[in-house]
């Protein structure tokens, strides 16, 4: 099956985004050397959407894996949908294009399909991904995100990127961009943590009303990396409701959680570091949840955010104190 055409949705700029993507954040370095193989396998199975970021420090490997599949004739560059992200140390408008060009050079691409502001939480510019002071506290920067957005628009006009969007923005921050005087391009998407325990119902409704695609990361709960995630939080995939539905449909709880998002009109990123999981994830198109079962999953919502970005709590643009 060619998922690029059959399983994609049109964004507000006319470009299509495949509804299932491969998330490439690998907190545990043991995946680093084999990421190449997973990407190649993912592409060979007919999948086309790869979600990367400067912050993940693996753009070189991703670019190489994709270029190898182009070189051997498996795909053309235009078949691949690659998402890159502007890291928070580059949010200052004068740094946006050079940050994008740096990623393009590392990936060895002429353009990126979708480039998004990784977070509204600007950090001190420089070589450190997470710049800290003498007390180990993050050093924030105060950046006008509307000016950042104008620099993103300029990158689109320059042909460096086809579509532009945001990530980890709340409603207020999205409205700030949407209501900006002289807005040239609306964000095509908002990529946020989203799963049955944090179903983002209000934000999803708002995004749909503005023709902005909601893209779900941590759709299966979380990577549970200690640096970011409180370890006492419940494990989503052990939830009895998801497991009961998995039995009913003869599928895994993973597939039930992913299918739930697709039926809500959410683009979902599935991170898979075994070939079996990649194979399994493709089966998400093989079944359909009833309206009753969708409501049962809706009822699991408890606004549980696994990744609170706790190091950023004092940041003036911290997005998660708002209702949504």
Automatic annotation (TrEMBL):
PROSITE patterns: ALDOKETO_REDUCTASE_2. It comes from the Eukaryota. GO terms for molecular function: oxidoreductase activity. Pfam families: Aldo_ket_red. Substrate binds at residue 118. CDD domains: AKR_AKR1C1-35 (cd19108). The record marks 85 as: Lowers pKa of active site Tyr. Coiled coil: none annotated. InterPro entries: AKR, AKR1C, Aldo/ket_reductase_CS, NAD(P)_OxRdtase_dom_sf, NADP_OxRdtase_dom. Residues 21-301 form the NADP-dependent oxidoreductase domain. The active site is at residue 56. Belongs to the aldo/keto reductase family. This is Prostaglandin-E(2) 9-reductase-like.
